[in-house]
Design brief:
This protein is an alpha/beta fold. 24% of the residues lie in helices and 18% in strands. It has helices at 14-17, 50-65, 126-136, 145-149, 151-155, 165-168, and strands at 27-29, 41-43, 70-74, 84-87, 90-97, 104-108, 114-119. Strand 4 (84-87) and strand 5 (90-97) form a beta hairpin. The radius of gyration is 24 Å and the shape is globular. 19% of the residues are buried. Mean pLDDT is 78; it is low at 11-21, 152-158 and 162-184.
Length: 186
């Protein structure tokens, strides 16, 4: 008879140890530079549930801002949300306002650094949302919110470059060096 201790090793089934698949965050920010334009980038959430969508977004934005303290948003663009959420063990205040510009969100860090995001509606077609993400995050972009979300912005391709428009099409379009003759009036 064996009098030693009997150890039972319990190995959980593999199905219990698998991690949920991670979904890619649909966010694009302007490069770090002096602020220009109305927004600092764009975000395309998957739903209108702010408490479900914010933790992943705030974790990424904390890299640029530091600890995120507050988020302000337009009340009409989201489902009802709590006044506070906890992200990585830290409380974040949420403030919904009717006066906040539609389709925007302000994420505020310590000492008031702020990132203003264009929020692309969740139901937007992927191709269109991608174009808006690229356009809103271009260095030096000064388009207003209406221009960024306009139907033409959703369908026309937006090149991911800072080249002037006449260089993007191989020089076939507008060329500021060409002089046009104006017909003489009689």
């Amino acid at each position: 008879m064996n009098s030693g201790p009997h150890l039972r090793i319990i190995i959980p089934p593999a199905i219990m140890t698998t991690e949920q698949p991670r979904r890619r965050l649909r966010l694009k920010l302007k490069p770090k530079a002096p602020a220009t334009g109305y927004v600092d980038g764009a975000w395309w959430p998957r739903s209108r549930d702010l408490s479900a969508e914010l933790p992943a977004l705030l974790a990424v934005l904390a890299i640029r801002l530091g600890r995120v303290l507050r988020v302000s948003y337009n009340l009409t663009g989201w489902d009802a949300a709590p006044r506070r959420i906890t992200v990585d063990g830290q409380p974040v205040r949420l403030g919904g306002f009717h006066s906040q510009a539609n389709d925007t969100m302000d994420v505020i860090g310590p000492n008031e650094p702020r990132i203003t995001l264009l929020v692309i509606p969740p139901q937007t077609r992927p191709e269109a949302a991608h174009q808006v993400l690229l356009r809103a995050s271009r260095r030096g972009n000064i388009d207003n919110l209406g221009e960024l979300l306009a139907p033409t912005a959703r369908t026309a391709p937006v090149p991911d470059t800072d080249q002037p428009p006449w260089r993007l099409d191989g020089g076939r379009g507008y060329d500021p060096t060409v002089m046009y003759r104006i017909p003489r009036q009689r």
